[in-house]
Amino acid sequence: WDETHFGKMGSYYINRTFFFDVHPPLGKMLIGLAGYLSGYDGTFPFQKPGDRYEQHNYVGMRGFCAFLGSCLVPFAYLTVLELSKSLPAALLTAFILIFDTGCITLSQYILLDPILMFFLMGAVLSMVKCNSCADRPFSASWWLWLSLTGMNLAGAMGVKFVGLFIVLLVGLNTVCDLWGLLGDLSLSLVMFGKHLLARVLCLILLPLALYTAMFAVHFTVLNKSGPGDGFFSSAFQSQLIGNNLHNVSIPEYLAYGSVVTMKNLRMAGGYLHSHWHLYPEGIGARQQQVTAYLHKDLNNLWIIKKHNSDTADLSDPSSPVEFVRHGDIIRLEHKETSRNLHSHQHEAPLTRKHFQVTGYGINGTGDSNDFWRIEVVGRKTGKLIKVLRSQVRLTHVATGCILGSSGKTLPKWQGWEQVEVTCTPYLKESPNSLWNFEDHINPKLPNISLDVLKPSFAEILLESHMVMIRVGYFKPKDNEVTSKPWHWPINYQGLRFSGVNETDYRVYLLGNPVIWWLNLVTIGLYLLIAVSTAVVLKRGVQLTSELKELSRVVLCGGGQIMLGWLLHYLPFFMMGRVLYFHHYFPAMLFSSMLTGITWDTLLKFCAGYLSPSTTARRVYEGGFLALVLLIVYSFYLFHPLSYGMVGPMASDPSSPMAGLRWMDSWEF
Amino acid sequence: MLGFLKKPLVVTVEINMNLVALTVMGLISRLWRLSYPRAVVFDEVYYGQFVSLYMKRIFFVDDSGPPFGHMLLALGGYLGGFDGNFLWNRIGAEYSMNVPVWSLRLLPALAGALCVPLAYQILVELQFSHCTALGAALLILLENSLITQSRFMLLESILIFFILLAVLSYLKFYNLQRHSSFSGSWWFWLFLTGVACSCAVGVKYMGLFTYILLLTIAGLHFWHMIGDQNLSNVALLCHFLARGLGLVVMPVAMYLSFFYVHLILLYRSGPHDQIMTSAFQASLEGGLARITQGQPLEVAYGSQITLRNVLGKPMQCWLHSHTNTYPIRYENGRGSSHQQQVTCYPFKDVNNWWIVKDPGMQQLVVSNPPRPVRHGHIVQLVHGITTRYLNTHDVAAPLSPHSQEVSCYIDYNISMPAQNLWRVEIVNRESDTDVWKTILSEVRFVHVNTSAVLKASGFLGASLPEWGYRQLEVVGEKLSKGYHQSMVWNVEEHRYGKSQEQKEREVELHSPTQMDISKNLSFMAKFTELQWKILTLKNEDTEHKYSSSALDWITMDTNIAYWLHPTSGAQIHLLGNVVTWASANIAALVYTCLSLWYLIRRRRKIYDIPEDAWRLWVSAGGICIGGWAVNYLPFFLMEKTLFLYHYLPALTFQVLLIPIVLQHLGNHLCRSLLLKSMFGALIVAWFSSVYLVYCTFSPVTYGEPSLSATELKDLRWKDSWNILIRKQ
């Protein structure tokens, strides 16, 4: 399944070819490292799910992920122990995580999620530890936990941007913490300043530094040209070995008759592109499409021509070379289809305020709407135009609009989901409407080796983030049936990891329903308990010291965990992108910890009412044992889900799993 | 007994002349030449069609919001005697004589005018001075964008009116709390809060944000009451229940009643019928009800039926077949079974009729008594005109090669046996022995041999090429991913078949169904369906020329041209008062910074301002900044087309903040007399600039007088404003 993505990216690291992905690089780097150390040579193609690994050594990568996945259990155990100071609560949480089929399945394969969850739980644990060291500020252990929190934050952010939520949780916790310190009048302002500085250092500067370092490693490791080149600017590409811009030698000045590619200067802007397809009926004029395309392609080639003279005399080898100058009026002919870049006062397909850009004319003869004035930013008329370095603006002569890329992805009718190109009548200066010439082929001109301006590391970092955000954000939504956030906590539908047919070895990602439903019920229960506790405290009812301790655990410890759950779950309702079931797992970790704390509190409270100490103990122990047995038994029932099953589908009554298909939506 | 006669009857009337004056000024500014221009202005073209539909009592679904706002507009039309006959098709079209323009625009304008005294009252209730309150009201009065928006048949001014009313009545309620809990006026303001909230939500879903804000504030106040040891538990419980009644139960009931009235008013079928389920359509007068009235309820063996796909997207369609076959080879070289095509056809047609047949018997008529089909029964479906059997087999479907082809079986004698048994599964059954009912039952057809499910591939572009006459594809879905509407069908037209012979049967199929029994949906069922449709129905995202992003609104980088005179340069724009917008932003910034400063200082036990001034500052800011934030920030998460007018509710709250901040600055930061008088002078100067800007822009607010091209150019203060200048 998704191993095809991440395993492949691990291979890229081993082969050092550049690629592009919407997630930050740490997770894939770690996978690559694990593969490298375990002797995987990066040659397996990872083409489609279900391919056999044959002789390739993949166990290292899987083992690494599985190891991180199993670290979750002790982490959760320690966190709950720290929060509730109660061994049974911690044990209950640990049991839940050990016996949850979903967690097992998810950490068995080469995926980013076990790595993400590892760092996430690490951050929670060290945050909680640090909070309990609060009475000994600036001691060695305090520093240790604080900086560990920072490191884990960097790790979580570096695997997926979902790590942002844990940053938010830690941030909120820190703000509360500082607010409390600020109110403590026995603390001088200088001391408070020290506290503030220590946190800024460990929780902001340290993670940032690590995060940047991660990218630095990423870019140093990946120094060969690969499939991700086209997403980045020309300057960036010149850094990659094997890219046609690496150590380029091309004619320096732009001349008439040259064949060029034009790249949009916007971050993740594509090449000016056209192809043999027309705009569909009803969207502007029915002429050939012009788009921006992120990949290198023959259809990106354009020929520069004078607006008034014909093609013939330019292709004549004897005629003298004439350079293009700032302010010239030119025509751009698409090389493959021989149509001119054209614009007119029709609406653009998506950005209705802009004009449509099309390919028009046959074999280079068009009309006056094909004329564009070429201008270099910050130069005077008459100057020559440099390839790569000059930032060029193309103004449409007839309507006065500027050629630009709107950054919006065209819908399916395009077939290729390329980026819209428009002609904007608003004369705003922005990278959207600036282009540079990247390839430049003209046999008549001497090639000169050019060193493109080397981008600084900060620029690279900024650019790669912009590209990630843009590509991730503008990812088109599929209309197919994907899972909805409300499906997740009720374990409505799983994900098929491998195997479809009856004879295949099937693995199905689905949480242990008993555990998940217990978690779900517990959230409601917790809210009830928390609200009633808070009301009781607010009413000023006198409590015994035991009950006070219990209410502290519920409100502070449980509150933190509950907040974590909310932060890792609610934002998905607002996300427009395609969502999968496994996105819920970070929230599920929090939910499991909450279950441990809540049930422990509840049992203690019930036991507290039955005053004779032996009965109380018995009730407490009995309840605890019942819960654990329930969890273990349900795991026994559902374990084939994660360890694989063969045989007929569960919808068939003869299957061993038939009785376990409690919901119609499960497809194992 | 007659003691009351001993005292003279005295009526003391206290009239706040401020309020009266403000109301009058508000009315003048909003009602001035209201029926000018006598042409369709901007979104009137959109709301107008609903008013017309109300006048004609024709059912419609509008995905932009609940029906209360539309009903209010329609009320205006009703009072003006509008007959609904006007073609709302173009912005700028002249109104014909039968359209009572004045009364149609009256209600929004009144609501807009009343916002002025409401603003005054709110600040008074927040315990600010009358002078400050007057300032707030004047700012609202002189806000060009609010004037423009309320002078036409649009919903925002009504929405803002109800929002402000809700805030005001909550404040009144809260201020009564201390002295006279559970008194008459206490109850009155509590319920008025609830009513105003539900009206706001009923006009536009945006009102929900303010409702949530008020609920939060009420919750906070109640939380403080919990901590109050003087109140007994019982009293606390009473307070809680009263609030629940007034702020939750009441609004929900009101909201339901809007829909009730809506559904009572609109009983005729109309253009949006096909969005609704068959059952809903059947409850409307005309349309489907005319056809389905009197059909037998229970589907029996031998029934003649049409099957409608429940999904209804991209269009409604019925299971269909015709004599043409699938081409032997498709364009991409894949082969087909060459059997008779089965499609989903978006029009009513005699080829949509199917006959339910018992596999064990030969007859195609309903026996006497009819044997009903139940959940789990195995049936064959016979196409009425061609008498071929609905069939599916392991051949790739034409457009979705992962699914099975569905055909009407032709025996070519090529070892491809007929697989025409289908199991009927009623999705919305109550028990496992439920009878298959016309219209009401939602049914899945599961193929017995391959357990594939009959499905209309409801994605855009699922229409077959030329050989399939562009009809929609029907497939057998093998990997049934749970429940999806595209796999569910319901019987729409239904009759018991009587004719034995094919010839007679064809005649029977062509004849319309007629008999007499009626089926009615309960109100709650109708409401749930309609509400669900309103929330889930999505118009295609069309970018509008004047649409803008939420970020443009703060700085007013955008405008909307509402109307342009056909010949002269007179035009109406939605453009705010620049000075007010800028000062509102500054006020919000100052408020936030000052609050942070105070908060941090208070944490260190340094008190800059007296305690009650601080409480005032927090409560006023909580409402104004909170109101601004809840009405503005959610737009960053929305994916629909946004316009400048969406910002107006947020702006109203922000404007209320200006005088609050000014009074605070004047009272607490200007210590010396000199500073105070300078501050006063500054305020006067600033106010006159607000007035000046109002006057400057009033030509594009009211649409008259007509300006020349140069004057218009001078008005274009920002390059991004789109002011229309005629080319000479």
Question: Overview of this structure, please?
Answer:
The complex is a heterodimer of chains A (668) and B (728). Chain A has three domains: 1-56 and 136-223, no CATH class; 72-110 and 483-667, no CATH class; 249-449, Trefoil (Acidic Fibroblast Growth Factor, subunit A) (Trefoil). Residues 476-481 of chain A have low confidence and may be disordered. In chain A, a hairpin with an 8-residue loop joins strand 15 (495-498) and strand 16 (507-509). In chain A, helix 3 (59-84) crosses helix 5 and helix 6 (113-132) packs antiparallel against helix 7 (140-159). In chain A, 44% of the residues lie in helices and 13% in strands. In chain A, the strands form four sheets. In chain A, strands 10-9-6-5-2-13 form a six-stranded antiparallel beta sheet, with no helix packed on it. In chain A, strands 3, 4, 7, 8, 11 and 12 form a six-stranded antiparallel beta sheet that branches. Chain A has a two-stranded antiparallel sheet with strand order 1-14. Chain A is built from 17 helices and 16 strands. Chain A is α+β, with helices and mostly antiparallel strands and 668 residues long. Chain A is elongated and about 110 Å long. The longest helix of chain A has 33 residues, at 189-221. Chain B has 728 residues and is of the alpha+beta class. Chain B has two domains: 34-261 and 576-669, no CATH class; 296-511, Trefoil (Acidic Fibroblast Growth Factor, subunit A), CATH 2.80.10. In chain B, 44% of the residues lie in helices and 11% in strands. Chain B has 20 helices and 14 strands. Chain B has helices at 17-31, 44-55, 68-79, 101-125, 130-141, 144-150, 156-177, 184-203, 207-226, 233-265, 278-282, 288-292, 502-510, 523-536, 550-554, 578-603, 611-632, 648-669, 673-702, 709-715; strands at 303-309, 318-325, 340-345, 353-357, 378-383, 390-396, 404-408, 422-426, 443-447, 453-456, 472-477, 489-496, 560-564, 571-574. In chain B, a hairpin with a 7-residue loop joins strand 6 (390-396) and strand 7. Chain B starts with 16 loop residues before the first helix and ends in a 13-residue tail after the last helix. Mean pLDDT of chain B is 85; it is low at 514-518. The interface between A and B is medium-sized, with 25 and 25 residues. Chain B: It comes from Cuculus canorus (Common cuckoo). Chain B: Pathway: Protein modification; protein glycosylation.
